[in-house]
Design goal:
The chain has one domain (2-196): 3-Layer(aba) Sandwich (NADH Oxidase). The protein is 43% helix and 24% strand. It has helices at 13-19, 30-46, 74-79, 95-107, 109-137, 157-164, 166-170, and strands at residues 2-6, 49-57, 59-60, 64-65, 70-71, 83-92, 141-145, 173-174, 180-181, 185-193. It starts with a strand and ends in a 5-residue tail after the last strand.
């Protein structure tokens, strides 16, 4: 199991605009552009990028055994077809962004929406960096697959948190209703093809 930390000096503007509902290629107004620039600095100074990940073996029987949990999900079984292992990870952009969102929810709802979008874009950006790091250790990885996609139950989050000691390692908590705090947090599985086991 590995715990890693990261940093960022910019946030993908196109991704933030997508979270704000802009169609790709649609330019925001000068006012929105200025707000994005102002909020980006606050989000970057408030974030704490952290992640934890570990490798598990996959075995097939009546149920798919993923090493940290078993499931009847057809979608995850199809996703892990040809994979003898997986890397399970949890990543977060930190609690500071939630505090910024709460602050601007009181002061400026439009700025709160922009901070929300920038935080989501930063979390995605961080997940891409974590994925790239994992790819450096385990070649030929599949794309990410998260609990709640398709018929892969969101309740598997409890197993993810137990297997990775997520709260202890990176400070993310899971509510009874399966919401993660900080909100800009992600859990995911990355399949490892049989021919690249290490």
């Amino acid at each position: 199991m590995k715990v890693i930390y990261g940093g960022a000096d910019r946030i993908d503007r196109d991704e933030a605009l997508r979270y704000l509902g802009y169609m790709r290629g649609t330019a925001p107004s000068d006012e929105v552009e200025a707000e994005l620039a102002a909020c980006e600095g606050e989000v970057l100074s408030s974030c704490r990028l952290a992640a934890v990940y570990a490798h598990f073996s996959v075995t097939r029987g009546e149920r798919l055994d993923m090493g940290f949990a078993s499931t009847d999900s057809r979608d995850i079984e199809k996703y892990l077809s040809g994979c003898g292992g997986l890397v399970l990870f949890a990543a977060t952009a930190g609690a500071g962004i939630d505090r910024l969102i709460a602050k601007y929810a009181r002061l400026s709802p439009s700025r709160a929406a922009i901070v929300q979008a920038l935080g989501s874009a930063l979390a995605e950006q961080w997940c891409n960096q974590v994925h790239a790091r994992i790819r450096g250790e385990y070649a030929a990885l599949s794309a990410r697959f998260s609990p709640g996609y398709g018929d892969f139950p969101l309740a598997i989050q409890r197993d993810v948190f137990a297997a990775l000691h997520v709260t202890k390692n990176i400070g993310v908590t899971l509510s009874e209703e399966l919401f993660m705090t900080p909100s800009k947090s992600v859990t995911a599985i990355v399949g490892i093809k049989d021919d690249v086991q290490r």
